Amino acid sequence: MALEIGEEHTRFVSWAEKNGITINGVAPAKFPGRGMGIVATRDIKAGETLVHVHSKAIISHASPQIFKMPSGRMWSKDLSVHGRLAAYLALRCNDENFEYKAWRDTWPSIREFRQILPIYWSDEAQDLLPHAAKEILTKQQRNIEADFCAVSATCISESEASFPKIDKDLFIYTWMIVNTRCFYWDYLDLPKVSPRLPRMRKDLTADDRYAMCPFMDYFNHTGDEGCVTETNRDGYYVVANQDYQAGTELYASYGTHTNDTLLAEYGFILEDNPHDAITLDHLILPDLTFKQYELLRMDKFLGNYTLSRGSPSPVTCHRTQAALRYLTIPYRRYAAFEAGLDEGTPEEQQIVDRHLVGLLEQYDRVFKTLLEDVEALEDKMGEQRATLKKRWVQIRCLVNQAKWALRDKL
């Protein structure tokens, strides 16, 4: 059941409709224990455009206020597009004249982020993150540090009047605001070659295509099919994927993310995520000899070993199968599998499956201790403790389902 939204959200909707954002048949709503979302304000038909964020309302690297520093000089080449957006927000978001102030007033506070985002958690809680989530967290920390160093260097080179020093805590907060609210944008409103593109269009990477779209961040994520997002040179659109009755919550998909990704990047996990998977790197890599490690690296089969939800039982990826074959059967048989010449015999598959069962049993033995360590977290970490416990129970369930399915085959 949706609750009444606060005045800040009402003000933002009014601001949005005056600043290039068309809202049709939907509105923000507050849900007990889950924060904000989007509901249908009337019956909606499949194919209806629900939201249009005009390209002029999108904040991207090509936006005039982002493209250059406040002094008019170019940003350091060492500062990522993500970092430039974060620096812009850090400089302006507390300004009463900030052009996006109405939107800024609806964002989560640093206090709220400290509860849900692992980057703010204590070292003790971070150490209890699943392996995949911990890897994402490490990457976030590394990227934030690199961006902040680039921003700090810019501050030193600029006069205090034209470029005030940015507080690191504020920068981390705005960096995570960008991280939790960015969409992919291909600068469709610009020519193929433009001085305001971070590089030539053919050389754009995924990290160049960050953009922030006011209002679209109200849509909560679903692991299943949700409303469709579309883009053209006029901006972003959200289109109904099916008929909806008035009062129904509407979702959009952030992508086929695992729960570890959702936890590290957005601060939540899904109860039932059809795209969930766990990494097995920490089980497989320690068993490799140096020679095996180097050969798998040269064959581009080193790491990213995953166990995913499947139907009717969990499945391992092709990379995992290749590595397990190299560990358990003669090299020539691994080479045939790696080259795609031979999928292996049933007898070989049994050997591989038996080895995998042993690895999963090894993993299962650590869960009791892990859950005890999670329960031992201080009471002030209650929300973090609950999230970690839920996630480790999900992982244990996936591991056991895979183990039992493999045993039935042996």
UniProtKB/TrEMBL annotation:
What are the SET domain coordinates in residue numbering? 24-255
According to the UniProt entry, the coiled-coil residues are 360-387
InterPro entries associated with the record = SET_dom (IPR001214), SET_dom_sf (IPR046341), SETD3_SETD6_MTase (IPR050600), SETD4_SET (IPR044429)
- Pfam family of the protein (one): SET
Q: Which top-rank group of organisms is this from?
A: Eukaryota
Keyword check for Coiled coil: yes
What protein name does the entry list? Answer: SET domain-containing protein
Naturally occurring in which organism (per UniProt): Sporormia fimetaria CBS 119925
The beginning of the lineage is: Eukaryota, Fungi, Dikarya, Ascomycota, Pezizomycotina
